[in-house]
Amino acid sequence: MTRASVPAKKIHEIATVKLPCGSGNGIGMTLNKHQGIRAALAWMEDLADLAKRHNNANFLVLPARFISEFLAKSIVDAYLAAPFEGGRHQRRIDKMPL
Fold first, then answer.
1. In sequence order, which residues have a C-beta less than 8 Å from that of residue 68 and are 6 or more positions away?
2. Most exposed among 36, 67, 73, 83, judged by the fewest C-beta atoms under 10 Å?
3. Closest CA relative to residue 83, chosen from 63, 65, 61, 56
4. 41, 75 in Cβ contact below 8 A?
5. Which residues of 81-93 are buried (b: 16+ CB within 10 A; e: fewer)?
6. CA-to-CA distance for 29 and 39, rounded, in angstroms?
7. According to the model, what pLDDT value does residue 6 have?
């Protein structure tokens, strides 16, 4: 799914999107300019897990030039398996504009 295929007012309703990028920085910065998007760059499983648990990231950005396909799959699995912890983390997210 590309950004162009999603109406702008619906983008924040997407549950999870995984996006590869060379370094991951450019797409992550671009995504995070938009309200309702919490994109996280992860190059290891622990970062993906924490991105979901603490920030309820709804976009996972992978640095495709720096990780193997095997590691990418493992990172995505860790991200998808992690629950959002809520609590103090939810209070921080609630301060972000939608």
1. none
2. 83
3. 56
4. no
5. ebeeeeeeeeeee
6. 8
7. 44
- Tokens matching residue 26: 């450019």
Residue 87's Cα: distance from chain center in Å? 19
Task: Tell which residue, 75, 23, 29, has the closest CA to residue 50.
Answer: 75
What per-residue confidence (pLDDT) applies to 18?
A: 62
Whether 98 has a pLDDT exceeding 70, the answer reads: no
Q: Residue 61: is it exposed, middle or buried by C-beta count within 10 angstroms (0-12/13-18/19+)?
A: buried
Q: What is the pLDDT of residues 4-52, one digit of tens each?
A: 444 444 444 445 566 667 899 999 999 999 888 999 999 999 999 999 9
Q: Alpha-carbon distance 85 to 24, whole Å?
A: 25
Three-state DSSP state, 80: helix
